[in-house]
Amino acid sequence: MLYAVVDIETTGGFASGNAITEISVLVHDGQEIIKRFETLINPEMDIPPYIEALTGISNDMVKDAPRFKEVADELYQLLLDKVFVAHNVNFDFSFIKHHLSLSGYELNAQKLCTVRLSRKLLPGHGSYSLGKLCAALGIPVHNRHRAGGDAEATAILLGLLIKSDLDGVIAQTLNRKAKEQLLPPNLSRAQIDKLPRVPGVYYFKDQKGGIIYVGKAKDIQKRVYSHFTGSNIGKQRQEFLKNIHSVDFEICGTELMAFILEAAEIKRLWPENNRALKHHEQKYALYVFEDQNGYMRLGIDKYKKQMPVLHSFNTLLEGHNLLRSLIKEHILCEKLCYVQTKRTACTAHGEGKCSGACVGKESAASYNVRVKYAIEYLKGMLPTFAVLDKGRNEEEQSCLLVEQGKFYGMGYISYHTDIEGPEMLKSVLQPYPSDNYILNMISNYTTQFPQKKIVI
Description:
Layout (H helix, E strand, L loop, with lengths): L2 E8 L9 E9 L4 E8 L8 H7 L3 H4 L5 H12 L3 E4 L2 H14 L8 E3 H8 L8 H8 L9 H18 L4 H6 L14 H5 L6 E6 L5 E7 L2 H7 L8 H8 L3 E6 L3 H15 L14 E7 L5 E7 L8 E3 L2 H15 L16 H4 L13 H18 L3 E6 L5 E8 L2 E9 L7 H5 L3 E2 L4 H13 L4 E3 L1
Parallel strand pairs: 1-4, 4-5
Antiparallel strand pairs: 1-2, 2-3, 6-7, 6-8, 9-10, 9-11, 12-13, 12-16, 13-14, 14-15
Helix pairs in contact: 5-7, 12-17, 13-15
């Protein structure tokens, strides 16, 4: 078996927006280096000052160097039919594959990551960065952060790993069915293997244990693996993969519960790599308050987490339609409900349809009775029901509670539990924040599976 030990220097951290400035390829037969290839590359873009400070490669050094497409054929032939080896292999491979593709070559190769292999075969080191690991192992590194020097050190490390591999770890890694080479450098295969094949929520964590991403899944292990497939070479994904050091999970009885838990956890934790669900916030809400004259006033305003809400809406139109229906049904004053704001008296008063609270002709006590009835009527309009479904095991069933149109929470109860009312369920369920995103998911689910909805 032949290995191509590769190291590159680049203008930045992700392939789609950056170029290669230097390449070194050392062909290794498992015992020694049998062929060398090394060259500076004209990146056809400026090298940032901080990159020049790190590598020592300047714009002047590369101005007369060949462009990538001029060495693409030689490089492709050199890499063909060899195992692609690098320290954090997916970084180097993403650049080489991308720029070969731009030159008309499609590279498909088995990969070995010396970071991952070192963690398995040489455990116990405080750091697995190339410089610190080589220092700990006594491997000399000449010209650090230059392609040739780093490739030489990686080749020596590869030889040491091959000698240390008494249990066939390298062969197992190269087994395409094992998917080992897909994993990010800092995430162990053992953690992936422990993930269950059931619905739930998973948490990617960084080196310090901070949660950087929350996801939901019908099959946790399969979904986690899917993050590492594909050919996205953008900056965001490359940084994301590099920062994954561990994965944790919570099993859910159903996929619906996983959806809800994911939404709640994203709002609670606000992970840096979750974006889509951060925008599923309630935008408007119906409020009630008492003004300085003692009148209870209903009104639509922007949703405020710290204020008690009668009902929430995604759109202002949805809110005003509901409010107008309450005004009509309970003969409320449009001015006191902020539907009309510029008039002294509301239009309905002139038409004999308002008792005059807007101009002080109706007392606050009399008007407030109808407001209270309107609020009770609204609560009666909003449904209270439970959704019963599969649990995490055969001894339990999952339960979601919606009370007066708001999601209360979820959890697990015995199959033998008699549901007598919402208060009984609330004593055993975990409360969660309610919003229209969650309510819409529950509504869609009960429409699809009406037999699982129990009206209380």
